[in-house]
Amino acid sequence: MQLEKLQAFVLSGSDYGESDRVVSLFTLEHGRIRGFARGARNSRKRFGPALEAFARIHLQLARKDGLSSLREADVMTLYTGIRSKLDGIAHALYACELVDSITPEGQPLPRLYRLLATYLERLDSGTADEAGRRMFEINLLNILGYRPRLESCSRCGSVFDGQGGLIQSGGELACRFCAASGLPIATLTLRELTSCLSTSRFGAVRFSGAGLSQAGGLLDEIIAAHTGRTLKSLEFLRQTR
């Protein structure tokens, strides 16, 4: 079987047997795939620290449906700045678990790969905050086609006025004529989220205090609807905030 040379992020991993490891990878070339690394816990020469969570690596593998066979991996970066702080680790693990949980297997998503790279670089610089997390999430949802319509009601199509909208189950946004209840989200917050889609620079959009909370409520609702479960890394993230 022909070997492929890829670049990837390690999303997660688990031990298998006495010396092997199964890893979930987000590759530039093929999107999310799973790989089996035989003897990874014993072979420092072939893998070393390359299979650590959120490491960015070059790898060689024999790709096939289900579980590919990893042969070698070399570290591009371990993001040592992230690993030196608990809040950085928490945000990085969350981002990787989100990508692992919400992306289809075997579908190339180069824009999302670049987004994850940019976000991890931001975390590596020492900036791990709620605004960066929310910018990562709204851009991820946009790339995957899961982003809600931010400028108008999803039911009647009317443009949100100064009162904003109401967040419905699953993250749907409705106006106050179409929905009797729901978490309110201000027009300013919707504009702030829209601004996140027009820049690739983390930190370029400044959320208001209320806006950050409202944006979080909307994004949490959408993400829960598409992942179908509570991400394990969220509890660790909450503990470090």
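Second entry:
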Amino acid sequence: MLVNLTEILKIAERDGTAIGMFNATGFDSLQAIISAAEELGQPVIIAHAEVHNVYNDISLVGPAMIAMAKEAKVPVCVHLDHGTSLEMIYRALRLGFTSVMIDASALPFEENLRLTTEVTRISHAMGVSVEAELGRLVTGETGEKNSGMTLSAEDYYTDPKEAEEFCRITGVDALAIAFGTSHGFYSAEPKLSFDVIKNVAEATKLPLVMHGGSGVSEEGYKEAIKCGIRKINYYSYMSKAGYEAAKKVIEEGKTKYLHDVEFAAMQAMREDVKRAIKIFSTK
């Protein structure tokens, strides 16, 4: 069942849980995510990240994502993750994505405000939900440190007062915030500021989004959800699970067919997605 972000996050708000968002970089990961959600009977968000467009162009993977969402036995939101260019956002809207993220968090506050307001106006007219970001994670979508960020992570945490003004003016449906997580793989347990989540949730009255969700402890997830996180972006460790399974099949040398490697990766990713969904959906 194809739904937008607002509709699916109402489920999380009602239940006091969070909905997992998983990046579908190809048909194997797309199948893994949808089948995991259906097996558990849980809603899910499938996403195409602009940074991943080089692997599968949105014009190819996007229609498949939408088609599978429509046929799914559970609510599925089709989301553009970290849309940094208006061109990519508008491509997603034209294809029928039900949610887009405008990520202008690297820009000055006023420019972020202006771009987000424009995207929200156009998207809402089409019945599409909008996620924006305020504050910055030290690492970007590729896991590399963002250029120009010389201060500590705490200096980039989302400010509740700015968040209230930003959300009120832009009219966004969900806000991604910075409170101590990072994209990519963690070398140590992240130090999360749950007070930031509480304060921003109180100021904005909106569903909040955790980026860099892979690698956070189960206790960390639970506390973040309790404080107001309603959407958790998860990709790196799902992808790693697929990689490790594919590597094992290749090293065993029992097949020379790529489809055997891909199938093993898909199964491993499905199990990792199931594990994550169980954590996010259980109080």
